[in-house]
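Here's a chain:
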Amino acid sequence: MRFAEYRALLDWTAGQLRCGKLDEAPRPSAPIPSGLSVTGEGWLRLVRDFSRLFRRAGGAPNSLREHAIKWNRRRMTGISHSRAIFI
């Protein structure tokens, strides 16, 4: 991700989270780079609820599976949330 894309995403995220405006409509679409494979709604959920959704690791389902294998675990807490958020 280029710095300009990262900056745009941070600015958009801050604007959405400021003053509890998450539930207000309409929202401009999120400037999410395609490599992240997440929707704007999913991104906001990750930012806002990350520590409630994941314990040891967080991310896309395939990265959680790799993490589980690396640490000899059968599954990772948060995989169902990950499947719901990432596209």
